[in-house]
Design brief:
It is a single chain. Helix 1 packs antiparallel against helix 2 and helix 2 packs parallel to helix 4. This protein starts with a strand and ends with a helix. It is of the alpha/beta class. Strand 10 and strand 11 form a beta hairpin. The protein has 12 helices and 18 strands. It has a 7-stranded mixed β-sheet, sandwiched between helices. A 4-stranded mixed β-sheet has the order 13-10-11-16, with helices on one face. A 3-stranded antiparallel β-sheet has the order 3-4-5, with helices on one face. The chain binds 5-S-methyl-1-O-phosphono-5-thio-D-ribulose. 5-S-methyl-1-O-phosphono-5-thio-D-ribulose (MRU) binds next to strand 11.
Length: 370
């Protein structure tokens, strides 16, 4: 996608420094656009854990490149195999909910285990590039499938109002995004589309990131507080909801940013279609019940302290929101059960959120369940 007219992905290999990865430091957006260099596995682990990069697809692609850096470090180690495994474990411990992390690290290990260590660096670079390219390609296809839903709505209305939660935009992937891909496709096709952007406390990924990237692409949008969605749905001001997901079971239960479940309940009550967009790398083919998905518990400081820019200032500063001494809890994700979901928008098409419909689209995984 474009930033000030220049095309970017969220992660790329440095054109100047071989073996260096570059990312957009998402913590600084929307106030500053900062490109960060990642040169070691530890750099990558910190970037994922501290959310310099975030969002399922982007985490997966970053972990994929992290494993490439791991092979470079393994080449210098006395025991390359032990070094590689230690790096994989370090990356895997960074964030528990987004399954793309495990998927990318496992894909790398599977590719490398059949090769001698002297071939690891080259192979791992290829795998990392493929993960990134496939992610961008899947999101493009999600956009084309989701566009059909928006086209149908647009046939009945002068413009289509879409509500989204958190950031499942291009910043959360390598390019295009999952939830935003149909929106960008509709906007680019000339369909008048407007987006209600949930601010998404506590880290405000909606207010900071989704609003920024929609604005960069010229998509009309309005930021709302997290509690406003139900009210807008009751008044007929939301035509559909599209969210992303950090992990979806092969039975259709969806883990996504905290607050998604409440939006799904409100959508059901108001007969607003509720879609979840995801590449197949976000399916968990092992877990059957969404409540088995590990939910990341993040620092209470994210609830009690908020960052932002004071009027007239360029630099960001923190303010405290709560009384000193008040406890805070910060579960980062929740699970929306399949019965609240109208459909899943994947790179292979749209299906119902249930095991047989998902298996029909991805039969190669269905076989593994036998
Ligand atoms: O904690 P984050 O920012 O990594 O959370 C992930 C998200 O942005 C959302 O849950 C998103 O809707 C799904 S990830 C594509």
């Amino acid at each position: 996608m474009n930033i000030d007219g220049q095309p970017y992905r969220t992660i790329w290999e440095s054109p100047k420094e071989p073996g260096m990865i570059q990312i957009i430091d998402q913590r600084q957006l929307p106030f500053q656009f900062v490109v960060e260099d990642l040169q070691t596995v530890e750099d990558v682990a910190v970037a994922i854990a501290d959310m310099h990069v975030r969002g399922a697809g982007c985490i997966g692609a970053t972990a994929g490149y992290g494993m490439w850096l791991a092979t470079r470090e393994a080449a210098q180690a006395s025991d390359p195999g032990a070094s590689l495994v230690a790096s994989a474990e370090r990356l895997l411990e960074t964030r528990p909910t987004a399954v793309n992390l495990r998927w990318a690290v496992t894909r790398q290990l599977e590719a490398l285990k059949v090769l001698s260590p002297d071939k690891w660096v080259k192979e791992s670079q290829n795998v990392a590039r493929n993960i990134a390219d496939e992610d961008a390609d899947a999101c493009t296809r999600i956009g084309q499938h989701g566009l059909k839903i928006i086209e149908k709505l647009a046939a009945k209305k002068p413009f289509v109002n879409v509500l989204t939660h958190c950031n499942a935009g291009w910043l959360a992937f390598v390019d295009y995004g999952s939830a935003t891909a149909p929106i960008y496709a509709a906007h680019d096709a000339g369909i008048p589309v407007h987006v209600w952007v949930d601010e998404t406390r506590p880290r405000n990924q909606g207010a900071r990131l989704t609003a920024w990237e929609l604005g960069q692409h010229g998509v009309p949008h309005t930021v709302i507080v997290d509690n406003a969605g139900g009210h807008l749905m009751q008044r007929g001001q939301v035509d559909m909801v599209i969210t992303g997901t950090d992990r979806t079971t092969h039975t259709g239960d969806v883990a996504n940013k905290i607050g998604t479940y409440l939006k799904a309940l409100a959508a059901k009550d108001n007969e607003v279609p509720f879609y979840v967009a995801l590449p197949s790398s976000t399916f968990d083919w092992e877990i059957t019940d969404g409540f088995e998905i590990p939910i990341e518990e993040r620092s209470p400081d994210e609830v009690t302290i908020m960052g932002g820019v004071a009027e007239g200032r360029a630099d960001e500063s923190d303010i405290r929101l709560t009384p000193e001494g008040s406890a805070a809890a910060n579960p980062a994700f929740d699970v929306t059960p399949r019965h609240l979901i109208t459909g899943l928008i994947t790179e292979r098409g749209i299906c119902e959120a249930n095991a047989s419909a998902i298996a029909a689209l991805f039969p190669e995984h269905a076989k593994k369940q036998d």
